[in-house]
Every structure is written in C-alpha cells, then in structure tokens.
Amino acid sequence: MRKKPATVRIARWSATHPWSAIGLWAVFVAACLVLGGAAGTNAISDEESGVRESGRAGKIVHSGDFPEKAEENVLITAEDGGKLDPAAGREAAADVVERMKALDEVEDVGDPVPAPDGEALLVPVTMKGDTENADRRVQPLLDAGASVQDAHEGVRVDEVGTGSTAKGLSETLGEDFKKAELISLPLTLLILLVVFGAIIAAGVPVVLALSCVGAAVGLSTLASHVLPETSAVGNVILLMGMAVGVDYSLFYLKREREEHRAGKSHVDAIEVAAETSGHTVVVSGTTVIVAMAGLYLAHEATFASLATGSIIVVAVAVLASLTVLPALLAKLGRWVDKPKVPFLWRLTMRSGESRVWPALLRPALSKPFITLVVSVGALLLLAVPALDMKLKQPGSDDLSRDIAVVRAMDRLTAHFPSKGTVHQVAVRAPADRADDVKTALNGLLERTAKDELFAHDSTPTIEASEDGRVHTVDVGTPFQPKSDGARESLDVLREWVPHAMADVPGAESAVGGKVAQGVDFTAHLEERMPWVVGFVLLLTFVTMVLIFRSIAVALSAILLNLLSAAAAFGVLVAVFQNTWAEGLLDFHSSGAVVSWLPLFLFVVLFGLSMDYHVFVVSRIREAALAGAPTRTAVREGITRSAGVVTSAAIVMVGVFAIFGTLSMVEFKQLGVGLAAAILLDAVIIRIYVLPALMTALGKGNWWPGRVSRPGGPTSFPDQTEPARRNAEEQPQYARFAAEHQYGQPSAPQAPPQPYQRGGYRHDGHQRPGQYHDEAPRPGSYQQ
C-alpha cells in the first residue's frame, strides 16, 4: 500500500474532523493577533535603515544621544499670495506666540523671524514629548493657528513640522488605503461570483485570505523584535495576502468542485484536490518564499522587513489552504454552492468543452515556432524602454499638491529655503578636540555662505552632544530634493567636509540628510541587485528541478518569467519616466522610477508569476503522465487550468490596479507595475509563449528525464484530430484499465469507457497511459 502524500493526509483529517480544524485555525489567528498586539512593533530606526555614508552619518548622530524634539514652523503670509502687510504680519505673529505659549503641548516658542524677501514671518515652536507620537498631539497647535487666521483678515497661517506634516500625510494616505480596501474587497467578491456563480463559494477565498492577513500581521509584529519592521510592511502583507490567499483557495476550490461534479463524494473530491492543487499550492508557495528570501541579500533593513512580512503571509496562506480550507469545504458540503446567482451559476455549470481557449491556443499549437517568435518579439519590444530606466528616491516634490500640508511646505521653502532640503554634517571626535571640531565646522560654514549652492536665509547652528564627542550642523540648499542642484550641493559638501576635518586628529565625519540617503540608497541597490537576482534565479532553478525532475522545465520557467518581468519594467518606465500618463494617473513625473521598486517588483513578480507557471505546467505534466502526446498535453493542461488561472489573474490585476489610484507615486508605480506584469503573464505568456515553447520542445520539455515509465503506451491520439469513440478503436487504453485501490489488490474491472474529449482523470496509482472516464466506485480514489 502506497503511503498517501502529506497534503492528502492533512486534508483527510481536516475533512473528517472539520470543527476541530476550524477551531484550531480560529485559535491560531486569534493567538497571532493577541500576541502581536501585546508585543508591539519594533520599528526600524534611522540608525538601522541607513547605508553607505549617510548610514554612517546616522550612526554618528545616534551615538551623540541628542534629545529629540518635535519642531513646528508657523508660517504667516498674505492670504492672496502677494506682499504681506508688515503691521498685519506682526500682529498675527504676536497672536501666534501668545496662543502657542498657552498650550500644554508646547515647550517653547521662539521669536518671529522675517523672511529675506520680506513677504513672510516664521514662528518656531518646540513641542513637548518625543517625535514619534507628535502627530497625535499636534491638533491643538493646528487649531490655534486656524484661530489666528480667522482673527486676522488678509493673513494666511500655515503650520509645517514634525507632527503637522506627519498628520497631514497620514490622513491623506489613510483615506487612500481605506478607499483601496473598500474597492478591492467588493471587486474581488464580484470576480469570484462570476467564477463560481454562488455567494458562499465566492466568499470562502476572501474570508480565508483576510484571516491569513490578520494572522500574518500578528506574526510579523512578533518577528519585528528580531528584524525591525518598516511601516510599509502592513501594506505589503495586505497586498500579498489577498493575492496569494485568494489564489490558493481558488486553485483548491475549483479542483474540488471539478471532482465533485464528476461524481466523487465530498471527502474523495477533497483528497484529489489535496493531492493535485494542494501539492501545487505547496510548490507555488515555496517558489514565492524563495523569491522573497532574495531580498535579504540586499543587506538593507527595509528590504529585510518587507521580505519577512511577505514570507510570513505566504506561509500562512499555504497553511490555511492545506488545513482549514478542506475542513470548510467538508462542513459546507453542498452548501458551498448556495445561494446560487441564477445567470452566473448557469455559466459556471455549462457542460462541454470551452470553445474560446482551444481557439486562442490554435496558433501556438499549430504553428509554434512562428507564434513563439512573434509573441517573444512583442514582449521584447515592450521591454525596450527599461533599458533607459533611471532610479531616484521619492521626495516631497513627488507628493500630490492636492494635499494641504504639501502646499504649505512649498510656501515655507519658497520663503525659507533652509527649512526645505537640508544636508546634515556629522562629526565624531575625542572630547578634548571639541574646540577644534567647532573651528573646522565654522570654517566650513563660511565657505557655504559664499556659495549659491547653499541657502543663505539663516545661519546654521552647530549642536554638540553632552559629552562633547559628537557635533552636527544642518546646511540647507535652495533646491528641490531630487534636483540636479541638490545633488551637486551634496557632492560639493562631501568634498569639503574631509578637507575641513583633516587637521582634527581622530575625527570621523560624514554627510547625511534626505538627499544623501536617496543617493546612497540607490547606489547601494544597484550594487546589490545582481546578488539578489542571481540568488533568486539559482534557487528557483534548483526548486523547479527538484519539483519537476526536468532541467528544461526549470530553464523555460526562469526565461519566461524574466521575459514578463522585463516587459513589465518597460511599461513602468514608459508610463512614469514620461509625462503622457500624468493626467490619466494624476501624478507629476520626476523622469525616474522609485529606486527601491525594481528590486522589490522583481522578486514579487518572479514569485507570483512562478505561481501560475507551476499550476499550469503541473496540469500539463499530469496529462503527459497519463500518456498524452505533447500537443495534446499542452492543450489539455492549459484549457483545464485556464479558468482558474484567468480568474486568479483578474483578481490580482484588479487589486493591484487600485494601488495605481493612491496619492504617493511609489504606490502608483507599484500598482501599475504589478498589474501590468500579471496581465502580460496571463495573456501573452500563458496563451502564446508557454504553449508554443512546450509544443516546439516536444519530449524535450522533460529533459533529462521523461514522463512515461517503461511499458507505457507508445502512441496516443492527437487531439487536433477527431478522437475515435470506442475502446476497441483505442487499444492503448485497455492495457491500463486495471485500477488499484488504496489498500486493495487489483481486481477485474469493467471495460474502459471511451475517452472524453476535453478532459482526463487518472488515479493516484494508475500507470502512465491509463486515460479513462470511469464512474467512481465506493471507496475508490480517482483523479
């Protein structure tokens, strides 16, 4: 007796003990949420997230243990944007000072500072408490500013700072994500209703995916105490969790319904789904996890955090598909197809072979070489713009000007450039050299005061740590963060600082700040990308070889996924490095792609695309193992998996496309890049490139192995020709009609039924070539 696969054993236990399995899953999800909430999040600090020189600057500043203060800037300008009346400005500024000093949240209020152009006044305010929660305490200050504006006609009062900026941006982004969630869930349900034609069947994948997201968020919070977490992890978990959670449930549920419709009992249908789709889910999840693990080689805390969150949610989704999903299906029984949506239900229950997919596949099957050249050529053409990809970190100039606080930032930096783009010079030296460090920094500031690359509206202040070992000074520049002027000022400052510190023995210096962080981060990723890509390709190749026992399948999988990723990058560059789509997607082109996006997109796309590839090739191999010739196996595998793959792709494209509507440009690029890649993969790769390639390779698909064992049939009817309709005309089927039962010896069987065009099923024990459509018998295990 052959031991059943682990996926089958787990599924059978869950199906025969449904309440136990459902209860254990509920306890698991609840425990993850409770423990995660109790532990709290360990966020990435600036010291941990920096790389290269800006990273060293962050470590130097951190070692100085400077007290962190939440600073606010209250800007007073003319309401119409023109010249500010001096008397009205002074009155408003005095009112601001008086009101701010009366607030419990305020520690100190500075004297009003006039702008060099005479058209604005600035009131500096220092808040009490730390900087992390300043956005939650800043509202009284904002209310005070609004009251001043109401009391003084013709004056505009803006507030920009640690708390107010964070609050303004988080509120806008929070509304964006709420809108995305409100759209994505109904959209996913609508797509699944079309797929299944029944409300419960459509709801099961969504509910299961949401439970996976909840459990993964809790586990990710716990994991943050080992690997600190970035704030974007929750968004990535939601994105990946809904994508793979729905996909895996969809694969499993479609196969279970297919087998149950063929006459199997619920438990038998679940076992078949576990051995086929369940196995595919494990393989697919493994490939996604392998791909995401490549991010650890980026040697950067943010990527490590994103990798950890993604791996956790994918692993949880695989676990849910193997354990609680069989229990839900067994417990629901026939109720899974209730309540039916009349028209959609009839569509899903249509008998007979689809006419659409054979027609779409005809070019690839009849003329594989021509189809391969044309389709690959089209993808390469789409990939051409990627050759001109430029990378930059996002900055304030990428934010939508529809956000009130962003417009306030623009007005502040227009009148006070030193409050905008700032470089931070950090120096660490022995305490007895503190005077020498100050002298050197003052000399540096004298040089910047004479250079137009730097802002001159205020005099920079040198700050020293309590122990006198660390000194910092902020040097402003009048340029936007991603401009050439900001980059040039950084290069000049990084050249001047070492010279300034040359006469201070033991001094360690570095230049940081937002511009430096963006430049260093981009350079770091460009350096690490070959290592990440190489790791993902190598490990994916090894994984595919172990799964399919075929070097050819592994190589073709890698090449096809590289092709679709390159085409997606080409679309991304064509859309976001140019201006033609600005009005359509509501963004301002910076002429570049966000620097962290290509690496992250590559591993995500490689993992998700491999998901579909494994599922489709598994069905093709299943047909080949049953004795079908290559063309027939390709046709059967793709046709029979087309519905579920297309449905899953539509869900993913819909969810990802919603991210293209968000305000921040990095999320727009992420959504468009993912949606374009999945669409290209589902349409061009799966319909034209993959079938054409596998048809052209023939038996070479399974090199160096083969799919049929000795003694298998040597011939098989090609489905491009009419099949003979009785067993006597197809003697090769009769040789393999004896079916083995689990735990039962072979028994005489009824004559095999005629092969049914458009489908096949084979038993877990049948030999290669057995291709039948027998009705199930009690206790049998068929597939």
UniProtKB/TrEMBL annotation:
It is a multi-pass membrane protein. Its main location: membrane. Residues 65-351, 401-706 form the Membrane transport protein MMPL domain. The keyword Transmembrane applies. It is found in: Cell membrane. Residues 708-783 are annotated as: Disordered. Residues 760-776 have a biased composition (Basic and acidic residues). Keywords: Cell membrane, Membrane, Transmembrane, Transmembrane helix. The chain crosses the membrane at residues 22-44, 187-220, 232-251, 272-297, 303-330, 369-387, 529-548, 555-576, 596-617, 638-664, 670-689. The keyword Ribonucleoprotein does not apply. Signal peptide: none annotated. This is MMPL family transporter.
